[in-house]
Design brief:
The protein has about 100 residues and is an alpha/beta fold. It has three helices and five strands, in the order βαβαβαββ. A five-stranded mixed sheet has the order 2-1-3-4-5, with helices on both faces. Strand 4 and strand 5 form a beta hairpin. The longest helix has 13 residues. The termini are far apart.
Length: about 100
């Protein structure tokens, strides 16, 4: 059984790059380009990991995570954020954090 990843990234090239990396590691990936699309994907499928951009069109990553986190069973959202275009931070947000 492949692990499933939902990539929520509005930068299409970056989303494809992340997808390519995880696909080579034998993950099954799905890309959503805005918060609404992410919620739609989450309603139709189950994921082991959700990688969320913080700054998204329609609904930001924190809002999306608050909506889907109660449905995740021992899984978590990982946030990605770019600061000053050179610095990347990841913020794991576990179910117990809400």
């Amino acid at each position: 059984m492949k692990l499933k990843l939902l990539i929520v990234e509005d930068d299409i090239m970056l989303g494809e790059l992340i997808s390519h990396y995880f696909t080579k590691k034998e993950w099954e990936t799905t890309i959503a380009t805005d918060g609404d699309m992410a919620l739609e994907q989450f309603e139709t499928d189950s994921y082991h990991l959700v990688l969320l951009d913080v700054m998204l069109p329609k609904q930001n990553g924190f809002t999306v995570c608050r909506k889907i986190l109660p449905l995740l069973n021992r899984k978590y959202c990982l946030f990605e954020s770019y600061l000053q275009e050179r610095f990347i931070r990841s913020y794991p947000w576990f179910r117990d954090d809400l």
